[in-house]
């Protein structure tokens, strides 16, 4: 389908795409060679160095069959990109995902790539089917009692792993959190408990968690960085396909077991997520369950660690939050319900502020569906646009005192007793802060992730005063997401 060429004045007055700053293919490749500017950099460092070299808008030529990509740090460009994405936004996903599902394993996936990698009508067909299941608040919140139980089991387990004198954990907290995230999302997606918080976890669950870690590393190497795999299947890429096979086999096995439990009868009761998906279409259900498990472990545990880190470094804000939690749960063992969790403005502000400072990804990506003018340059249809939200969220130009953890910037006035809201410290431009994306391709797991994070934060901070132990700030590694790494230690003092 051909788009009508733009002839309007704005387009004609804009500078041509060729005039946009940016390296040639050869120069770009040279940056990755020994001694090159981008050698051994992660995604954030790479973006930052390129911005230093080329400014707030630059283009990178497409390599190995990929589209050209424009990197922009101008929120007006973000708005132009989103407002012109149409009803079928294009966000090039993980090409290896699509190859594996459609070419290697049509036996399992029946030609469905999933929300990550499908585009156009094929994407919309799946998204329109699953939106009511995963984006409807009540549908997601039916999981609250079980997610609360999982959070309480997590806290009980932590209690046994704390040194009674120093209140330091004897185990790796980051690993424990991945177990919590896995236990939670597998309950939502599969309606089963994996037992990862017990002494007898399901061995397949531990294997699956291991393969998920491999998946993120391989995906950065083969989907983000330039690679020849579309033309030649390297030994490393074949290992990646084995990882995909392992993940597919384990999850398919879980799904078969879960399906045996369902009797498809209409008794007027709300069905769990898996049963609702299976009623839509079995192949769609398989794909969605896999996507939920693959996207819902490292992302949610990383987000929770980030928010906890900022609260642990800001004891006054943590105390303020605890006052809100004591009001909700005067007794620590009271169950969380829709009623008592309805009004938690300070908790929700803390989550927003943590994700402002460190979002799960450094930017949002789209492919233009029509010719656009970005920062005064012509950007032809079919060009990738990477919008650098993380850098702008941490800039005083958009957020006053951007280096400070200030939940008050997200509060409405007088919403929290005794706390002065300061919405003026928040960007007036809504496109600067979009941790879950925007528009029709907003993250489908947004509601699930928010519910899981809220529930565990309530339980942790109602029970413990949490302090950060290392001398250095939290470090992050960046593959296709940002993950805390290095020295991660907290002190958890009972309250």
Tell me briefly what this model is:
The chain is an alpha+beta fold.
User: How many angstroms separate the termini?
Assistant: 63 Å
Find the count of extended strands (DSSP E, 2+ residues).
10
Using only C-alpha atoms, the radius of gyration works out to 23 Å
Query: Segments where pLDDT lies below 50 for 5+ residues?
Result: none
Q: Give the structural class.
A: alpha+beta
The helical percent reads: 40-55%
* Mean pLDDT value: 91
Give structural notes.
With 495 residues, the chain is an alpha+beta fold. The chain is 48% helix and 8% strand. It contains 19 helices and ten strands. The protein has helices spanning 9-13, 25-31, 43-54, 75-83, 95-104, 106-109, 120-134, 137-141, 144-160, 173-190, 203-224, 235-260, 273-280, 282-295, 298-313, 315-328, 345-357, 389-393, 446-463; strands spanning 57-60, 69-72, 364-367, 372-374, 377-379, 384-387, 464-468, 475-478, 482-485, 490-494. A four-stranded mixed beta sheet has the order 1-2-6-3, with helices on both faces. Helix 11 packs across helix 12 (235-260), helix 15 packs across helix 17 and helix 15 runs parallel beside helix 19 (446-463). The longest helix is centred in the middle third of the chain and has 26 residues, at 235-260. The N and C termini lie far apart (63 Å).
């Amino acid at each position: 389908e051909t788009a009508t060429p733009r002839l309007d004045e704005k387009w004609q007055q804009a500078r041509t795409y060729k005039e946009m700053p940016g390296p040639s293919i050869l120069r770009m490749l040279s940056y990755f060679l020994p001694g090159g500017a981008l050698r051994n950099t992660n995604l954030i460092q790479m973006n930052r160095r390129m911005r230093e070299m080329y400014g707030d808008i630059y283009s990178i030529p497409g390599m190995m069959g990929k589209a050209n990509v424009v990197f922009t740090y101008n929120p007006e460009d973000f708005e132009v990109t989103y407002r012109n994405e149409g009803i079928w936004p294009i966000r090039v996903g993980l090409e290896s995902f699509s190859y594996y599902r459609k070419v290697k394993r049509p036996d399992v996936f029946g030609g469905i790539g999933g929300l990550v990698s499908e585009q156009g009508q094929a994407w919309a067909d799946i998204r329109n089917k699953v939106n009511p299941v995963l984006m409807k608040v009540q549908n997601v919140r039916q999981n609250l009692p079980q997610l609360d139980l999982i959070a309480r089991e997590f806290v009980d387990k932590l209690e046994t792993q704390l040194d009674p004198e120093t209140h330091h954990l004897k185990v790796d907290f980051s690993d424990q959190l991945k177990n919590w995230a896995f236990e939670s999302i597998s309950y939502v997606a599969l309606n089963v408990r994996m037992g990862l918080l017990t002494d007898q976890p399901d061995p397949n669950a531990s294997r699956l968690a291991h393969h998920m870690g491999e998946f993120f590393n391989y995906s950065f190497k083969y989907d983000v960085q330039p690679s020849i795999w579309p033309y030649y299947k390297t030994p490393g890429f074949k290992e990646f396909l084995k990882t995909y096979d392992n993940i597919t086999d384990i999850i398919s096995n879980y799904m078969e077991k879960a399906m045996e439990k369902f009797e498809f009868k209409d008794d007027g009761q709300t069905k769990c997520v898996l049963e609702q998906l299976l009623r839509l279409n079995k192949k769609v259900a398989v794909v969605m369950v896999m996507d939920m498990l693959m996207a819902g472990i490292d992302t949610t545990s990383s987000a929770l660690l980030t928010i906890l880190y900022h609260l642990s470094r800001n004891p006054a804000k943590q105390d303020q939050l605890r006052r809100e939690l004591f009001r909700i749960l005067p007794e620590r063992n009271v169950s969380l319900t829709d009623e008592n969790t309805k009004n938690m403005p300070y908790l929700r502000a803390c989550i927003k502020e943590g994700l402002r400072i460190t979002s799960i990804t450094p930017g949002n990506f789209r492919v233009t569906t029509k010719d656009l003018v970005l920062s005064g340059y012509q950007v032809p249809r079919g060009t990738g646009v990477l919008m650098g939200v993380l850098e702008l969220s941490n800039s005083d130009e958009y957020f006053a005192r951007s280096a400070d953890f200030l939940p008050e910037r997200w509060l409405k006035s007088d919403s929290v007793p005794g706390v002065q809201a300061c919405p003026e410290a928040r960007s007036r431009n809504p496109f600067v802060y979009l941790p879950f994306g925007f528009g029709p391709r907003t993250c489908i797991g947004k509601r699930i992730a928010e519910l899981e994070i809220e529930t565990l934060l309530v339980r942790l901070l109602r029970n413990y005063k949490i302090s950060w132990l290392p001398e250095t700030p939290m470090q992050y590694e960046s593959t296709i997401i940002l993950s805390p790494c290095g020295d991660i230690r907290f002190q958890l003092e009972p309250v």
